[in-house]
Amino acid sequence: MSFRDAFDWPLNSDISTGDDAIGSLPDCMQWDGSDALLGSDSMFLVERSDFQIRLANTPVRRAEVNSLVDRMYGWRGYLLDHGEALPRYDAGQMTLQACEQGETVGTLSLSLDSGQGLQADELYRAEIDQLRLSGRKVCELTRLAVDNRANSMELLASLFHLLHLIGCQMGASDAVIEVNPRHVAFYKRLLGFQQIGERKQCARVDAPAILMHVEASYVQAQIAKLSGLRDKQPKARASLYPYFFSLSEAEGLAQRIGRLVSSWLPAA
Asked: Fewest beta carbons less than 10 Å away: which of 2, 40, 154, 176?
C-alpha cells in the first residue's frame, strides 16, 4: 500500500502494517539538503522544491485546509461534522498547511490542553485525565489529511516534526491522537505511539477509534538517534524518524519558531 493510502484519513483509511506498507521512494522524492528549510519567503516555515509548509493562520488558509479535509474524508463517503471546521485562530491551536505549486496538499493540527479540554475528551476523558493528574501537559494531534498527489514521506515527517517543535515551545509533554483501529500498528511502528484507550465509536466521522499516546521526550530521543538517516533506512521503512529534520535543521527551526510565536498570536 502506498503512502497516500495510508495517511489520507487518521480515523478512516485502510492501512497495511507489513514491511512493504510504504515501499521505496523515487529519486525525485529524496531529501534535497540545503534548500529544505527557511526559504526566502518568510510566510513559510519550510520551503523545498517539492513542497512548502506554513501556518494556516488566516481565514483564507483555514478555508483551504478545511476544503482539503472535507475532500479527503468525503471522497470515501465518511460522515463529516461541518460544525467541526477550524475555529478562529487562537493560541491553543496550531494548524499546518502544506502546499505544492500553490495548492494545499497536506495538513495536521495541534491543540493544546486548556480549560475547554480536548476533542478526544469526548470519548477518552478518563484516560487523558490520568495524564493530567500526573502533571503532564497534553496536546492532541487532529485532522491529518494528505492529498493523493503528495506521495512523500518527507512531507509527512515534516508535518509531524514541526508540530513536535511547536508543541515543545508551547510546553507540551505528551501527545494523544485518535486513530482507526487498523492504524494502531502503523502508528506504533512509524512513530512509537502506544495505545491507551480501548476501541470506541467516534460519532464525528461515524467510524471506530482508538486513543494513542506518545511522550515528547520519547520523540526527541528518536529524533536524536535517527533523524537525517533516511538513506541508511532499510527497505522495510521501520520508522518515520529518519525522515525528520536533522538536529542542526531542527535547532534552526526551533529558534525561529521561538522568535515568531508572539507574531503568530492574534493581538489582545
From this structure: 40
Q: Across-strand partners of 146?
A: 106
Decide if pLDDT at 143 tops 80: yes
Measured CA distances, 58 to 95, 119, 155, 167, 208 (Å) = 11, 22, 22, 20, 32
Residue type at position 129: D
Is residue 206 classed exposed, middle or buried when 0-12, 13-18 and 19+ CB atoms within 10 A define those classes? middle
Counting Cα atoms < 13 Å in the Cβ hemisphere of 50 gives 17
Is the distance from CB of 4 to CB of 150 less than 8 angstroms?
yes
pTM of the model: 0.81
pLDDT (tens digit, 9 = 90+) per residue, 69-89?
A: 888 877 666 666 544 555 444
Pseudo-torsion of CA 66, 104, 34, 238, nearest 10°? 70
